[in-house]
Design brief:
By secondary structure, the protein is an alpha+beta fold. The chain has helices at about 40-45, 50-70, 85-95, 130, 155-160, 225-230, and strands at about 5, 15, 20, 30-35, 140, 145-150, 155, 170-180, 180-185, 190-195, 200-205, 210, 215, 220-225, 235-250, 255-270.
Length: about 270
């Protein structure tokens, strides 16, 4: 299968004579790819496709880890202005390939060994979090207590807030989530979380809505997971602390309501 960007006058999506045309949210270009290649039966059986089969198996482990990361973000990935799933899949695959000891096709995905690769991960390319909210945050994860805290300093909206759409309100949100390392299970021929009980769990705390004109005094947001989950905390579990700034307008009920695609976020700490 081959893929290319269509630069001519085409304004179509769908399939035409063995070609597929489609668009992506993070691009205004039409992408073309050809259909075809070896059929599924050959890929499953022929020895020359063993490498491809191993890649498919391992990729499953990467995508399952990233699915849990998205859940651990507590819905704050809605702030993204590009496809963060594809980028995180690539990071997970890099973690997997860092294992030089396990057999190919069965290499684990150990987020707990590479937490620094996603700490500071931004959900935005056009409106990066630190440029939208231009103040220094203090963030802390109390791993044993499964508790996360973000301290926000004095915010002067005239100088510290980049409100590109000039919306009347904004709020700050934090999420604490947990993700287990993934390992290949030979019995099921599939990847499984080592600690399924806490895999992809998340809890969220939101500030009040603030006027987007004026100042906000220093405050703190804290989120803590319930006791029932703390019993499952192991070294194979990573704890993610995420923050987002979300802008809003007056909703149907006269109260502030979030505006779609008017937000920015990042993973501020992983422990």
């Amino acid at each position: 299968m081959h893929m290319a960007i269509v630069k001519g006058p085409f304004q179509i999506t769908g399939s035409v004579s063995g070609l597929s045309f489609y668009t992506r949210r993070d691009s205004d270009k039409v992408i073309m790819r050809t259909k075809g290649g070896a059929n599924a039966d050959k890929i499953k059986k022929l020895p020359q496709y063993e490498g491809f089969r191993n890649q498919q198996k391992e990729w499953s482990g990467c995508t399952k880890l990233v699915s849990a990361i998205r859940m651990a973000l507590g819905g704050l990935h809605r702030a993204a202005d590009y496809n963060i799933t594809a980028t995180l899949n690539g990071v997970a695959n890099k973690m997997q390939k860092a294992d030089s000891e396990s057999e190919k096709g069965m290499r684990p995905v150990l987020l707990s060994s590479y937490t620094h690769w996603i700490a500071g991960f931004n959900f935005n390319r056009r409106q990066v979090f630190n440029s939208v909210l231009g103040v220094s945050l203090q963030s802390e994860i109390d791993r044993d207590a499964l508790k996360g805290t973000v301290s926000f300093p004095y915010i002067n909206t005239a100088t510290d807030l980049q409100n590109l759409r000039s919306l009347p309100y904004f709020r700050l949100i934090i999420a604490l989530g947990t993700v287990s390392d993934m390992a290949y299970d030979a019995n099921s021929s599939d990847y499984r979380p080592l600690v399924p009980e806490i895999h992809g769990a998340s809890f969220v705390t939101e500030s009040a809505w603030f006027p987007a004109v004026g100042v906000v005094q220093p405050f703190e947001l804290t989120v803590e997971m319930p006791e029932r989950l703390k019993a499952h905390l192991q070294s194979a579990v990573s704890v993610l602390l995420t923050v987002a700034v979300e802008f809003g307008s007056v909703g149907y009920d006269g109260q502030p309501a979030a505006v779609k695609y008017a937000a920015s976020g990042k993973i501020v700490a992983v422990g």
